[in-house]
Amino acid sequence: MDFEVRAGEVVTLIGRNGAGKTTTLRAVMGLVKNRTGSVRLEGHETVKMPAEQVARLGIAICPEERGIFSSLNVTENLTLPPVIAEGGMSLEEIYGLFPILKERGKSQGTKLSGGEQQMLAIARILRTGAKLLMLDEPTEGLAPVIVEQIGRTIQELRKRDFTILLVEQNFRFASSVADRHYVVEHGNVIDEIANEAIEQNREKLTQYLGV
Question: 159: which of 25, 33, 131, 174 is 20 to 30 A away, CA to CA?
Fold first, then answer.
């Protein structure tokens, strides 16, 4: 698989279920054993690095399962993530992006809605100081109003010079936030489509995604 994400971009990996999108994020993060090939982050070859060393280069992943501590409250979840680089967001900055998290500060993770859990999961990685964020299916199963809020958050993060690699099945959402899209099939990138070229490639996208 060969693809590139440039600084300040929002790029999506799209494709059918089982295409290898999530595995790709995990491989970039160093969470897949016996990696081969080359993974370079700002000139650093990381394919042989353990995940904790990769993280210290300023990269973080928000997994599909969200990875929050269900027994801890919102505030505790936000104070636990390790700082891996300078520039992690303060609690006040987090609350500016996700006001509901301030309101729910003393609520346990198990008491949050799916949308609130997703916001908390994204907020946790923003606390670390990472500038390359990998988000795995951040809108799956969420109400449209929450999807819109996450979209606004991604757009705001791009304005703040974050780089985002996004795995997303909801192509309507992906096309509202991304600069470019890589189509993944059987663990390979088979096409690259610029966001402004979606309309002229809509028939091809329908075939790729089976929608």
Answer: 25
Backbone angles phi, psi at 133, to 5 degrees: -110, 130
SS3 175: helix
> Smallest Cα–Cα separation from 24: which of 197, 185, 145?
185
What are the tens digits of pLDDT across the range 129-146? 999 999 999 999 999 999
In CATH, what number is assigned to the domain containing residue 57? Answer: 3.40.50.300
211 pLDDT more than 70: no
Q: Is residue 73 part of a domain?
A: no
In this structure, what DSSP letter does residue 108 have?
B
Residue found under tokens 């309101």: 103
**Domain coverage including residue 143:** 10-67+131-209
Query: Does any domain span residue 57?
Result: yes
Burial class for 65, CB neighbours closer than 10 Å (0-12, 13-18, 19+)? exposed
Q: How many CB atoms lie within 10 A of CB 93?
A: 14
Phi/psi of residue 137, nearest 5 degrees: 50, 55
Give tens-digit pLDDT for 90-122.
Answer: 999 999 999 999 999 999 988 999 999 999 999
- Give residue 209's pLDDT: 85
Residue 83 lies in a domain: no
Longest dimension (CA), the chain: 49
- Rounded alpha-carbon distances, angstroms, from residue 10 to 31, 53, 94, 98, 110: 22, 24, 20, 20, 31
10 Å Cβ neighbour count for 172?
10
